[in-house]
Amino acid sequence: MLKPLSRFGSNSVSLSLSLLLFLCIGLVSHSASAETTLKVRLKSVNAFSGSVDSTIRLAAAEGTGDDKDVVVNDLQPTLGAALQFELSPIPYFSVGWLLGLSTWRSENDGQLNHDRSTFIDLDLLLRGQYCFLDDTLSVYLLVPIGLSVNRFSEDTMSSMGADFGHGVGFNVSTLLGLEFEIVDGFGIFAEGGWVYRDFVHTAFTRTFGRLAEVDYSAWAHQWGMNAGVAFSL
């Protein structure tokens, strides 16, 4: 069994995500100081169709290694939930955080009756919005971007012949939505769009007596359809 190597992806990805998180902290702090309304949203997170594309790279520690052909697997529906916190520093724009948990499985894993794997997302949220009907109906464009952590199910790792541990990468989505305020401070919403995740798992093994690194790189893309409730605090 291959042993996992704990690492946070490439330096460029780490730096970019760190800058995004610091930017989010700054914007939220500025909004809080301006005494803006905090919006809390709880939603189901669902994605359909699409595929997970992957490559496996095996390299000796002293060599460059080879990239194998891309393997494309169709995805079963991704199911989960997310919690959002948002503030509006200026009219028609809001910024915030998202914490999400989703489970996913490829069609191949489904045919083998494997358990579902897990995504954890920590995102910066950027929202542009416009309100109608005395601010009871709003249309918006939401862009979540941030950190993704993947954990394969034990069944999947067993079939791959490796314990890859947790994979780290990023996610980005573009979602168009509608929100309706039923009563003051409470509403419902629905949104849909494109969802993309990119992540890398790494393990070490020995090949012909030499230490070798195994990189599993994957990128998943689906169409998302979410719905939930919104509270103003």
In short:
Helices cover 15% and strands 64% of the residues. The protein has helices at 11-33, 107-111, 154-160, and strands at residues 3-4, 39-60, 66-67, 71-74, 78-90, 93-104, 117-132, 137-151, 166-183, 186-207, 210-232.
Order of helices and strands: EHEEEEEHEEHEEE
Please give the alpha-carbon distance between the first and last residues.
Answer: 50 Å
Largest sheet: 8 strands, antiparallel, barrel
The Cα radius of gyration reads 20 Å
Q: Average pLDDT, to the nearest integer?
A: 83
Give the oligomeric state. single chain
Helix percent reads: 10-25%
Strand residue content: over 45%
Structural class: alpha+beta
Number of strands: 11
What are its keywords?
3 helices, eight-stranded antiparallel β-barrel, 15% helix, alpha+beta, disordered N terminus, 11 strands, 233 residues
